[in-house]
Amino acid sequence: MRRPRIIRRSPRARVPDRQDDTGAEPRIVALIPAHNEAQRIAAAIAALYRQERPPQRVVVVADNCTDDTVAIARANGASVIESELNRHKKAGALNQALDRILRELEGADFVLVQDADTVLAPSFLASAIEAMGRSVGAVGGIFFGEGGGGLLGALQRIEFHRYAREIARRDYRADVLTGTATLFRVRTLREVKSARLTGRIGGGTSYYSLASLTEDDEMTKAVRTLGYRTVSPPGCAVETEVMTSLPKLWHQRMRWQRGALENLRDYGWTRVTAPYIVRQGFMGLSVLFLALYLVFTGWMLARGRPEFRPFWTAVGLVFVAEKVVTAHGAGWKAQLLAGTLAVELAYDMFQHAVYVRSLWDMARRSEERWCAT
């Protein structure tokens, strides 16, 4: 996906003709929550105006910004809503903006919520609207990592490509309405707020939960609890930022993992949450099995020279082949990296450490803080 030309100040970015708000077609409003995103906000806006079906309005939700985010957003054709006395990060800023925006929209209209560090494929909105059937409450993006980031960036890109393959195998069902970009029907957002107000679902009294570290994961469970399907069709690709250092990646993944676990705890065992709970259980088993494998391997090495048996060698080669094949979409360099196995094994151990630490912190009731990454 090519990076769009970025306009930082003047001249004003060219904005394509808007669709007629009075027409029969549903309106689309794009919301971009942003905290000090001066370096990336113009690219996100430009990608929206290059959509095959562009939104009628692009709104940057500036939350406690101290840089040039607001000025750059306006110079690139977006309107700006600045949060007021918000202490609830992204979710709080979005709730304030949605309270204002939804007053002007009909139930059949659409609201796109996307991150400021994300660039949408030109087909995103057209594909999302086409997939928005009667039983679908929201359409999430399929995210891929942007270039750069060295070895750590390459590992994240491989991970994201494998997740995209998994979505395709599940017939494009979205288990998470990713915060990178999700299109909601206005009617669905209003039903979510109403359900929170009546106590049918928790998380406060507004659209996004203020109690969750991962508001996108919690919103997915809220939408599905109301009986809607969530999907991620193939035309809804997005390119998003990768973490360029281990501390940043640690904070990101701790927030994702801890938030996912806490959301499951809050919702409990239901028809919606059961598959997620089972998946977390399998994650725990993979942590255990990998630990046993490493202990056994260490024990064998301590005893002397290990024996290479044909059967287990063949099993190992099949495992390597699977890693290489599933990294295909990320390019040949990624496939070579996957073929080494050792590097990805270290990355898996990092992910397992995040999982174990999240469980430990939950058991100790240790507070996890929302960290911008």
Would you write up a description of this structure?
The protein has a domain at 28-243: Alpha-Beta Complex (Spore Coat Polysaccharide Biosynthesis Protein SpsA, Chain A). 49% of the residues lie in helices and 12% in strands. It has helices at 41-49, 69-75, 89-101, 124-131, 150-169, 186-198, 215-225, 246-267, 274-303, 310-326, 332-340, 342-363; strands spanning 28-34, 57-62, 79-82, 110-114, 118-120, 136-140, 142-145, 181-185, 229-231, 237-240. It has a seven-stranded mixed sheet with strand order 3-2-1-4-8-6-9, sandwiched between helices. Helix 2 (69-75) links the parallel strand 2 (57-62) and strand 3. The protein is globular, with a radius of gyration of 22 Å.
Short description, anyone?
The chain is of the alpha/beta class and 373 residues long. It has helices at 41-49, 69-75, 89-101, 124-131, 150-169, 186-198, 215-225, 246-267, 274-303, 310-326, 332-340, 342-363; strands spanning 28-34, 57-62, 79-82, 110-114, 118-120, 136-140, 142-145, 181-185, 229-231, 237-240. The longest helix has 30 residues, at 274-303.
What is the rounded Rg?
22 Å
Structural class: alpha/beta
Characterize the biggest β-sheet: 7 strands, mixed
- According to CATH, the fold-level topology of the domain at 28-243 is Spore Coat Polysaccharide Biosynthesis Protein SpsA, Chain A
Given the structure, what is the number of helices? 12
Percent of residues in beta strands: 5-15%
Estimated helix fraction: 40-55%
Order of helices and strands: EHEHEHEEHEEHEHHEEHHHHH
The level 1 CATH classification of the domain at 28-243 is Alpha Beta
CATH superfamily of the domain at 28-243: Spore Coat Polysaccharide Biosynthesis Protein SpsA, Chain A
CATH architecture of the domain at 28-243: Alpha-Beta Complex
Give the overall form: globular
Low-confidence stretches: 1-23
Average predicted confidence as pLDDT: 89
How far apart are the termini? Answer: 22 Å
Number of strands: 10
